[in-house]
Every structure is written in C-alpha cells, then in structure tokens.
Design goal:
Blueprint (H helix, E strand, L loop, with lengths): L8 E7 L6 H9 L6 E7 L6 H6 L6 E4 L5 H11 L4 E4 L4 E3 L4 H12 L3 E9 L7 E5 L21 E3 H7 L10 H12 L4 E12 L8 H17 L8 H8 L13
Parallel strand pairs: 1-2, 1-4, 2-3, 6-9
Antiparallel strand pairs: 4-8, 5-9, 6-7, 6-8
C-alpha cells in the first residue's frame, strides 16, 4: 500500500542471463516493508529464463529488455525512466539482508536531510549465501579519504534524483569504474551531503567483473586514474594503488563466517 507521506524510492536492477540468481534479488525487494518502492528491471536481452522469472513478480513496475552497451549504459536507462525521489541500484546477483532495509535508508536520509546515503555489505559464496567471504565496512565519510583509495560500496549507494538531474549519470566511456567516477564526482568534487548507515544491508555474491582477472584489475586501475582526470581533480601519486590494496583488509576479519 502506498503512503503519500513517504518519498518513492526507485530500485534499479540490471540483468543479463541472471536466471540462476535474480529470484533472490526480486524477492528481497518484494518483501521490503517500505510502502513506496518503484522497482525497475533493465535486462540486456537475456536468452535464458531471466525475463520469465521477472514477469512472475507482481511488484515490478517497469521492465526494459533490449541490447545495451554494458552495465553502466543499462543503469543510465534505468535512471532515465525512474520517477522516485531517491534512487538505488541492486544487482541481479545481490539481495537485501532483511525486509526493513529500505525503511532504514528512508528514515536515515530524512533524519539527516541528506542528498545520499551509503552503508556496508558482505560478499558471500555464490551458492552458500550464508557464508561470508569478505566484509566491506565503509566507515564514516570524510572527503579526504578518497585520496587514500577509499570509496563506498556502490550497491549500498542511494542518491536523490535531483542530484542525478544536476550532476549527471554514469560515464559509459568507463567500462569498470564508472560507479567509482560517479561517487567521486558526487561526494568529493561536488561535496553533496551524505549519510552513513553503519550496518550491512546487502549480500553480494563474489565474483565482480573488475576483479575477475589481473587484466581486468589493471584496466580498472587505469580507469580509476581516469576518473580523477575527467573531473579535473588531482589525486596523490599512490591513490590508485591504495584503492585495490584497501580491499585486502576486508578478507581478514570475517572470512568464512557463516550467518
């Protein structure tokens, strides 16, 4: 049931041949206790059962299924059709950890009167999603942390639509670091007001594109440097090196923990 006193929150899920995982994603949105969610699916013309699974969920308002030019192009398509006051992204192999996540985000942003919010996430085993492989605790925001390789987890990043309207969407010239560039642009360059919700809100199946191989990691490092140049910003000489190194500590504290 809709509640006109609460802002609509758009959740954009991009997918391609995601039949093995997307039901978890969709269920985690369908079971949220927040009353005003607009769930948008942007599918890259999957040739498995992704769309038939999507069509079985009645809460979804908008479905786009057509070829795209990569995940960031798909995300921009979702942004273009979204009508929510606040926008978040949930990948087709990720899911929210509990039904109160969107309510918690809306309440925190309203309390802080913030333009954006981020939280923590855990990487989990592809098949046993109760097994934690890596924990990403982002910590409180300070703009200067970007210079030391910091970034918030993009799947936890919720932003008011007015910010996208003002500062733009994803730069599709970047193939693996457009989310980093966007957050650098919003948080560091334009210094929008951001909240930190200090709890894990998403389980993310391990196996991201930027870390899938050494060549992908090197390309991501090159694109991380480009993100600063595109915004006419000057990082430290070691900024791009520290960014992947920061991830090492995420493997230590809770590796193989089961929740």
């Amino acid at each position: 049931m809709n509640d006109s006193s609460k802002p609509v929150i758009s959740i954009i899920t991009t997918a391609y041949n995601s039949a093995s995982t997307i039901a978890d994603t969709l269920t985690s949105v369908a079971t949220q206790d927040y009353p005003n969610i607009e769930h948008i699916i942007v599918d890259g013309a999957s040739h498995d059962k992704t769309i038939s699974i999507v069509n079985s969920f009645l809460h979804i308002q908008k479905i786009i299924s057509e070829k795209d030019n990569g995940i960031y192009d798909a995300m921009n398509k979702g942004l273009a059709v979204s009508t929510g006051e606040i926008i978040g992204f949930l990948n087709s192999d990720d899911f929210y950890v509990s039904p109160d996540i969107i309510s918690s985000i809306a309440n925190q942003m309203a309390q802080d009167q913030s333009d954006a919010l981020y939280a923590d996430l855990v990487y989990v085993h592809q098949k046993n999603t109760n097994r934690i492989l890596r924990t990403w605790r982002a910590g409180k925001f300070k703009a200067g942390k970007f210079l030391f390789g910091w970034m918030p987890p993009h799947p936890t990043f919720f932003v008011r639509k007015a910010i996208y309207d003002r500062f733009g969407g994803f730069n599709t010239a970047l193939k693996s670091s457009a989310d980093y560039e966007l957050m650098l642009r919003f948080l560091y360059k334009h210094q929008i007001k951001v909240s930190y919700l200090p709890k894990v809100i998403i389980k993310m199946r391990a196996g991201g594109v930027s870390n899938a191989s050494l060549s992908n990691r090197l390309r991501a490092n090159k694109e991380d440097r480009a993100a600063w140049r595109l915004n006419h910003l000057d990082p430290y000489i070691f900024t791009a090196v520290l960014k992947p190194l920061r991830k090492l500590t995420q493997f230590i504290t809770e590796k193989n923990k089961v929740i």
